[in-house]
Amino acid sequence: MQSIWSLETEFTKRKSLEQDISVDVAVIGAGMAGLLTAYLLKEKGVQVAVIEANTIASGQTKNTTAKITAQHNLIYNKLIIDVGERKARQYAVANQLAVEKYANLIQRNGIDCNFERKSAYVYSMDNNKLLKEELRAMQMLDLDAEFVERTTLPFPIKGAIKLSHQAQFNPLKFLKPITEELTIYEHTIVHEVKENTIITNHGKVKAEHIVFATHFPFVNVPGFYFARMHQQRSYVVAFENCDKLDGMYIDEADGGYSFRNYGNLLLVGGAGHRTGENGEGGAYEQIREQAKQWFPNAIERYHWSAQDCMTLDGVPYIGHFAPLEKNWYVATGFNKWGMTSSMVSAMIISDMIVGQNTKFAEVFSPQRFVVSASIKTLLEDGMKAVSGLSTQALLIPKTHFDELPNGHGGVVEYNGMKVGVYKNEKGEAFVVSTRCPHLGCQLEWNPDEKTWDCPCHGSRFDFKGNLINNPSTTNLIKY
């Protein structure tokens, strides 16, 4: 399952770190956020190196739907209520500036990345009230928003908020020329970070400033990001033979669908769930069946999935990693809006490192805690963690190894042990520990992707036990 972006773009391979080095800034993670941060720092004359455990853009960046927009579902009315108009305006200004920053970079460098100006829409099937409240908030913050009742969607709606002058693109085509002049070390795994030293499998990197742009921070203390975020998965199917839409669309309701065109394709996203909670499977099939109702002649060409870090209050954590680590920085918790959030992160962190004042940084501060906006999610995430830990420690599997059919995976009992087993169609078994190496929660089987997923903090592993997604940094124990 590869995204259309991955199939269309190939990056120049980079060497691993070969010796100890010293730089002004080390960026850990070669996704959109890390690479943009490195690029803006290089523009400011800073010596910077990017450390990547795998390859360029091999994480979440390659799986985005690549919408560049300041319209992040229904965010602005909530922000005004939770943190006030001033900080809500910071969020709006930062994200709209991010849209224009992309446009300027692409134009200035002549980057061919299918960049298109498009309107962004949040639509509702049944709730005009929430849309009207959001519209008032957006207009209060001087965003170019309007209410519309008719769209090019293939089904009736109650209404939609249209935000003009947004954009969409191919993110990997954009990154290819951006990365050409950057110093990047691939297949260099970070084992530990101590003060100003990064310890990897190929040597040490000393840096005056260290940026964690690893999707989910792998350092638990300080920061405690594992207690302030969870992860969600979503799925995308790309179809041919569908009507062309006039913009980018997302449903305001949980369980709804998103849409955007790319050339002759229509990308339909949805079927989302918390990571580790897809035991029954069928996510892709849900999208396929729904799309067939809207577009009877649709032909599937590609399908893939994405994973997103969700913060307690719906705002990313961008800035200083922790109060006692003044020269550490973090960019995480993009809440499904990774393209604009990556650019916002790059602007804020690069300015902080060179001592420039960023007027919109306050709302994104990782040290914030807004009780009214955070407490409900904090309690829910805490309960999930307790449940995952207790399940691993106490629950005895009802299924025995021999009872698991070929082509299926699950948690079973084998020789008095609780293990995770996947049997392929030939009956070959792959047996792993069900204990997540991160903090010990019980992993759950994801039949759509044949992976072991952690419902507590979102680490993922393939059926052989190899690490796919952090915050875990090690593979599963294999039997």
Principal-axis shape: globular
The total beta strand count reads 24
Our count of helices gives 9
Extract low-pLDDT stretches: none
Tell me the major beta sheet.
9 strands, mixed
Q: What is the terminal-to-terminal distance?
A: 27 Å
Q: Overall pLDDT, averaged?
A: 92
Structural class: alpha+beta
Helix content: 25-40%
Rg over CA atoms, rounded to whole Å, is 22 Å
Percentage of residues in strands: 25-35%
Which short descriptors sum up this protein?
479 residues; alpha+beta; eight-stranded mixed β-sheet; 26% helix; globular
3D architecture notes:
This protein has about 475 residues and is α+β, with helices and mostly antiparallel strands. About 25% of the residues lie in helices and about 30% in strands. It has nine helices and 24 strands. The strands form four sheets. Strands 3, 4, 5, 6, 11, 12, 13, 14 and 15 form a nine-stranded mixed sheet that branches. Strands 1, 2, 7, 8, 9, 10, 16 and 17 form an eight-stranded mixed sheet that branches. The mean pLDDT is about 90.
Topology:
Blueprint: H1 4-8, E1 21-28, H2 32-43, E2 48-51, E3 67-68, H3 76-83, H4 85-109, E4 116-124, H5 128-140, E5 145-148, E6 159-168, H6 171-179, E7 183-185, E8 190-194, E9 197-200, E10 203-212, E11 229-240, E12 247-251, E13 258-262, E14 265-274, H7 283-294, E15 299-311, E16 317-322, E17 325-332, H8 338-354, H9 371-394, E18 408-414, E19 417-423, E20 429-432, E21 444-446, E22 451-453, E23 460-462, E24 467-469
Helix pairs in contact: 2-6, 2-8, 3-4, 3-5, 4-8
What would a concise description of this structure say?
This protein is of the alpha+beta class. The protein is built from nine helices and 24 strands.
